[in-house]
Amino acid sequence: MPSAAPAFDFRAVVLSGFLPAALFAIGEGAIIPIIPIAADSLGAGLAFAGFVASLILVGELIGDVPSGVVVARIGERNAMIGAAAVSVVGLLVCTWSPNPWVLAAGVFLVGVSTAVFALARHAYMTTAIPVQIRARALSSLGGVFRFGYFVGPFISAGVVHLTGTTQSAFWIHVTCCLLAAVVLLAIRDPATGARGFRKPPRASRPAAATDVTAAPDAAEAAVTEPPTDTGAQFVQDEAHGLFRTIRTHRKVLLRLGSGAGLIGALRAGRQVILPLWAVSVGLDDATAALVIGIAGAVDFALFYTSGQIMDRWGRLASALPCMLGLAVSYFLLAWSGHLDTRVGWFVGIAIGMSLANGVGSGILMTLGADLAPRAHPAPFLGAWRFTGDFGQAAAPLLISAVTAVASIAVASGVMGVLGLVGAGVLLRYVPRYLPRRLR
Question: In this structure, what are the phi and psi dihedrals at residue 161, rounded to the nearest 5 degrees?
Fold first, then answer.
């Protein structure tokens, strides 16, 4: 009779997965609002300062897919340590940049390294967490990043106030990157016992996600196998190529990936349209910041609830309310613009958007983990993350373009339509690609 599997050590995963992610997120949150100010202090105009600020997202988008190959070849922990080191290089370039162009290069490098770190962390959690608590773990990971982006700007404001220089904020992220690397070097991998900068045996990693449970049934096997309609087998090879990965999973990436892109678009769109709408209804800066801040707190408070919903009732129980709630909020925003009580409507809609977004916390990471091949998830997850990040990058451009051509109300309506389309895509394809117990 086989011996019982060892108990799952969640504390070890928290220390090796969540703590480095929290440190990295705090550092990134500290520099994001500072980048355009730093560009302006170096002589950049308003338009070029905005371009420099966007390069961190552009770097993440460009780095998403090739980062999967890097992670697959050197291992998740090694990739996170290496990404932290590359981020430090980019941040030092930002700190000592003599002109906006050098600052732009440093910001882009930070963005690319952020993509590698995020992908490695996602792949690590995919292999280390049992499927029974996967959604709660990954939604908690999303909550960690929300926490970092919330805390980081306050730390940055304090440091800049004390030092009197904008560039000093970059040292916060340098410190956070170094601390994250130290944590990763010092703590043992709970799945393999590996410590430090070395690649763990690949064959042992899938077992970490499954040995704590009974043998997988047919439904679980469907999660770790490629979609049945592709007619392709996973290549059990460490050097699983980028283009081979995209070709093998092209159908799920086009179908469910389009849904992921629309989720990313609606989420990013709210961060753009709410401040613009606050201006359009006549709110002063302080009141607008207070309303959006309260809405952000509501969003953050729901991250664990989202994971509980997904683990208990399935992925659609989180994804559909998220998309439909965001779509309805965009429609209400467009409709309320002409009302005398539009300020009150704005406050209610902002909180409603945050409720909808919070219910879907972690959904993209969870779906990616469900669909990824268990033996080597990183290449697939890189392509999967690209779909969501592409939507996030495209949404602000779409809102700006429609607002310029028509109006902000029309832009909000367009986003609402995209939300309905996204809900339909998820309703159609999640049951097709996930087993019944995870839908």
Answer: -65, -40
Provide the CA 385 distance to its chain's centre, in angstroms.
8
Look at residues 118, 56, 120 and name the one whose alpha carbon lies nearest to residue 90.
Answer: 56
Burial 232-249 (b: 16+ CB within 10 A, else e): eebbeeeebebeebbebb
391 contact partners, CB below 8 Å, separation of at least 6: 260, 261, 262, 263, 264, 265, 266, 268
State how far Cα 170 lies from the chain centre. Answer: 21
Give residues with Cβ within 8 angstroms of 50, minimum separation 6. Answer: 36
Helices (H) and strands (E) in the chain, counts: 19, 0
Comparing C-alpha atoms, which of 121, 35, 140 is closest to residue 78? 121
CA–CA separation, 126 vs 381, rounded Å? 10
Task: Kindly report the number of other CB atoms within 10 A of residue 38's CB atom.
Answer: 25
Beta-carbon contacts of residue 254 (< 8 Å; ≥ 6 apart): none
Backbone angles phi, psi at 316, to 5 degrees: -65, -30
pLDDT in single tens digits along all 439 residues of the chain: 444 444 555 666 667 778 899 999 999 988 888 888 888 888 888 778 878 888 888 898 898 878 888 888 888 888 999 999 999 999 999 999 999 999 999 999 999 999 999 998 888 888 778 888 888 888 888 888 888 888 888 888 888 888 888 888 899 999 999 999 999 888 776 555 555 555 554 444 444 443 333 333 333 333 444 444 433 333 344 444 566 777 888 899 999 999 999 999 999 888 888 888 887 888 876 777 788 778 888 888 888 899 999 999 999 999 999 999 999 999 999 998 777 788 889 999 999 999 999 999 999 999 999 998 877 788 888 889 888 889 988 888 888 888 888 888 999 999 999 999 999 999 999 999 888 777 6
CB 327 within 8 A of CB 335: no
Query: Assign residue 214 a region: left if phi > 0, alpha if psi is -120 to 50, beta otherwise?
Result: beta
Q: For the residues of 244-277, what is the DSSP string, one character each? A: HHHHHTHHHHHHHHHHHHHHHHHHHHHHHHHHHH
Chain centroid to Cα 335, Å, comes to 30
Q: What is the DSSP letter of 14?
A: I
Amino acid letter, 26: I
Find out whether 286 and 296 touch, Cβ atoms under 8 Å: no
